[in-house]
């Protein structure tokens, strides 16, 4: 029976491997694999349609696979449920807008993949060799318990504890091997050629086991001749509960009835008081006696954190950055790092109950009132531990501007902090205060580097974005360029249509045009003078033509086009994750209606004539003709006084989105005619249009009655 289950799992994994197309290319002749040790495996898998090249006849054998992309592969290949996502993100670096959010949450829920600690998933980080072994062995469902003791690699001690059994099982199955020098290099990056090599071995193992095993027979009551594959038990790294000393508090709770796991159902039982501790200088851990329900996560408003002080008036608020549920613990990450020896007072309010902490059995957490936690560690030993962790981070921290990279200046600052900490650690005369300060500086530099890791690009429509077209115009194409912010009908600025920024950041990026016509993409995305992505524009309607130009793209309508619904599709390719393309849709707004000016809403007051139109108007102010007309007892006909633009009046255009023109009369003109009888302004406007070039219709001049101007001056 064990071999039957293994066959099922291997076949499932074969489906998984068929999704390892990063990215898909129809080409089967690859020009860059002759020097690869996995050439035969790559060719075999390409011929079977299991993996593909990256385009242009390339496979990129030494290319890396990042954690979030492998999670997507796992989720898609195993057909995991990506629709039932949790109400809040499990990891702080994979928020809901992230392109891999649903896939990562599905893989976590299935027990296939975990985070890297500190509430983070590790987006942008390359998949390591030891993690590749863990994921493949976990997907196979192989019982690897205890096999880590059999490892013979000279660097076996460097393999993480959570990965040792899986690495040993992968070696035993012949799926993976070490290096020629007897090492395994557990933290080394898994290359595409290595994944192909393991994939080919998986297929051979599947065929071998299939030949050795008879098909499972039909069992009574199953309704099927095949036993469904069982969900593998995850190989989970040890949870960091932070129990490393320091103040803690615990207590009993009431038990008055059965609980419920249904959201919104009253729960009558209560968890015991949590144990409180620090896992590092900015993470407080609340540990309960039962596994917690990840669907219910409190917000910072549920907590009050203050730095403890002997003088109550000196207590200062400690602000919360993020909250995560992990196993039996609530991890509270603060915005600032505490020094070793500092204390914090924590209070937890269970209201509102919809967000209250509860276990998977439905028991609610009790309230916590002003419990004091002290950040305590053995300073010398803790400093050595922090130095080792920081050095490990630097080994994998690649400088750059792509997803998963780190700013070089933050890398340099962490290196400086490590060097300073080593001097303190190695000094026999170092004072306790110096050790504490070295710990504080190193934790800050470490946290700053993690926070500075380059996040994925996020694409959205710009605020108030619109794309107006007039189907009655046959004046040629509309150009989308990186032009001036004030647009014309035939020239649109791409920065007014879309917005690009990093996930979890407010910074908007500068979108520049591709200067070379031979470039494959329409626009390139520039950050810090470096290319980080591309923008391409398409139409939802094939009749609308989108042509690339040296300055951007041209949008053209066919003759007699009468479709009512069409959109422009903006697609973002992030160079840090080129296999996953984001898209936003901007509906085209059709405007063939001529603008008008409202006679009843247009007014005169205090030397200002205000004309209210149905939409913003464009035109030359010199084409506004105004006369002041009044009746004279000495003349048979009314007297008309023309006003000259620039001398007698000036015009201010409306603000964006406003539909009015304000005509300001010159003080000299007002003075000259202040003694004239009451009359009326007559205004004619020629040549004005709306944005879509619909001509303003004025069959009669606008007439605005005016009281005696001398009265207006009083």
UniProtKB/TrEMBL annotation:
<feature type="region of interest" description="Disordered">
    <location>
        <begin position="207"/>
        <end position="278"/>
    </location>
</feature>
<feature type="domain" description="SLH">
    <location>
        <begin position="25"/>
        <end position="86"/>
    </location>
</feature>
<feature type="compositionally biased region" description="Low complexity">
    <location>
        <begin position="212"/>
        <end position="228"/>
    </location>
</feature>
<keyword id="KW-0732">Signal</keyword>
<dbReference type="Pfam" id="PF00395">
    <property type="entry name" value="SLH"/>
</dbReference>
<dbReference type="InterPro" id="IPR051465">
    <property type="entry name" value="Cell_Envelope_Struct_Comp"/>
</dbReference>
<feature type="domain" description="SLH">
    <location>
        <begin position="87"/>
        <end position="150"/>
    </location>
</feature>
<feature type="signal peptide">
    <location>
        <begin position="1"/>
        <end position="26"/>
    </location>
</feature>
<dbReference type="InterPro" id="IPR001119">
    <property type="entry name" value="SLH_dom"/>
</dbReference>
<feature type="domain" description="SLH">
    <location>
        <begin position="153"/>
        <end position="213"/>
    </location>
</feature>
<feature type="compositionally biased region" description="Gly residues">
    <location>
        <begin position="243"/>
        <end position="261"/>
    </location>
</feature>
<protein>
    <recommendedName>
        <fullName>SLH domain-containing protein</fullName>
    </recommendedName>
</protein>
């Amino acid at each position: 029976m064990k071999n039957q289950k293994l066959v099922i799992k291997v076949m499932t994994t074969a489906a998984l491997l068929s999704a390892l197309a990063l990215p898909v290319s129809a080409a089967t002749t690859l020009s860059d694999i002759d020097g690869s040790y996995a050439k035969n495996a790559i060719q075999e898998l390409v011929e079977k349609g299991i993996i593909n090249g990256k385009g242009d006849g390339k496979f990129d054998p030494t290319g890396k696979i990042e954690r979030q992309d492998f999670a997507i592969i796992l989720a898609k290949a195993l057909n995991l449920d990506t629709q039932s996502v949790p109400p809040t993100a499990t990891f702080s670096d994979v928020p809901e807008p992230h392109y891999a959010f649903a896939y990562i949450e599905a893989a976590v829920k299935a027990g296939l993949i975990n985070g890297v600690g500190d509430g983070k998933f590790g987006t942008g980080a390359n998949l390591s060799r030891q993690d590749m072994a863990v994921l493949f062995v976990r997907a196979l469902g192989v019982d690897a318990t205890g096999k880590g003791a059999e490892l013979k690699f000279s660097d076996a001690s460097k393999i993480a504890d959570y990965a040792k059994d899986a690495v040993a099982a992968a070696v035993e199955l012949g799926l993976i091997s070490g290096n020629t020098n007897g090492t395994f290099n557990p933290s080394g990056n898994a290359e595409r050629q290595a994944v192909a090599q393991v994939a080919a071995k998986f297929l051979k193992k599947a065929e071998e086991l299939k030949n050795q095993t008879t098909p499972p027979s039909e069992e009574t009551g199953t309704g099927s001749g095949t036993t469904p594959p069982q969900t593998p038990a995850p190989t989970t790294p040890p949870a960091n509960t932070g129990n490393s000393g320091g103040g803690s508090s615990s207590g009993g709770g009431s038990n008055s009835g059965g609980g419920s796991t249904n959201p919104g159902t009253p729960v009558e039982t209560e968890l015991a008081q949590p144990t409180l501790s620090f896992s590092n200088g900015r993470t407080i851990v609340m540990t309960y006696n039962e596994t917690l329900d990840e669907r219910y996560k409190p917000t910072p408003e549920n907590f009050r954190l203050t730095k403890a002080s002997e003088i109550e008036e000196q207590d200062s608020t400690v602000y919360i950055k993020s909250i995560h549920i992990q196993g039996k613990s609530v991890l509270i990450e603060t915005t600032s790092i505490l020094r070793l020896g500092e204390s914090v007072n924590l209070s937890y309010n269970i209201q509102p109950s919809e967000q209250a902490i509860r276990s998977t059995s439905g028991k609610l957490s009790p309230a916590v009132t002003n419990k004091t936690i002290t950040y305590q560690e053995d300073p010398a030993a803790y400093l050595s531990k922090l130095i080792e962790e920081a050095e490990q981070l630097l080994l994998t921290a690649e400088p750059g501007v792509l997803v998963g990279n780190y700013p070089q200046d933050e890398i340099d600052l962490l290196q400086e902090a490590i060097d300073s900490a080593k001097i303190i650690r190695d000094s026999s005369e170092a004072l306790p205060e110096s050790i504490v300060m070295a710990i504080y500086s190193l934790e800050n530099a470490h946290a700053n580097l993690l926070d500075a890791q380059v996040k994925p690009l996020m694409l959205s429509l710009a605020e108030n974005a619109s794309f107006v077209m007039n189907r009655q115009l046959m004046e040629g194409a509309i150009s989308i360029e990186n032009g001036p912010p004030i647009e014309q009908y035939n020239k649109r600025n791409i920065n007014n249509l879309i917005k690009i920024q990093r996930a979890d950041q407010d910074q908007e990026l500068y979108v520049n045009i591709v200067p070379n016509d031979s470039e494959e993409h329409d626009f390139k995305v520039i950050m810090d003078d470096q290319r980080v992505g591309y923008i391409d524009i398409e139409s939802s309607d094939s009749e609308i033509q989108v042509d690339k130009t040296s300055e951007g793209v041209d949008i053209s309508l066919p003759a007699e086009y009468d479709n009512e619904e069409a959109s422009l599709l903006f697609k973002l390719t992030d160079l840090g994750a080129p296999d996953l393309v984001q898209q936003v849709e901007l509906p085209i707004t059709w405007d063939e209606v001529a603008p008008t000016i409202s006679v009843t809403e247009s007014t005169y007051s205090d030397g200002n004539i205000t004309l209210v139109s149905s939409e913003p108007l464009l035109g030359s102010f010199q084409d506004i003709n105004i006369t002041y007309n009044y009746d004279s007892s000495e003349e048979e006909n009314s007297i008309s006084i023309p006003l000259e633009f620039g001398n007698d009046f000036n015009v201010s255009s409306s603000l964006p989105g406003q539909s009015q023109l304000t005509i300001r009369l010159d003080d000299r003109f007002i003075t000259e005619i202040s003694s004239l009888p009451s009359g009326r302004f007559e205004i004619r406007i020629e040549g004005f249009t709306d944005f879509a070039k619909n001509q303003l219709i004025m069959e009669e001049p606008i007439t605005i009655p005016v009281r005696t101007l001398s009265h207006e001056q009083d």
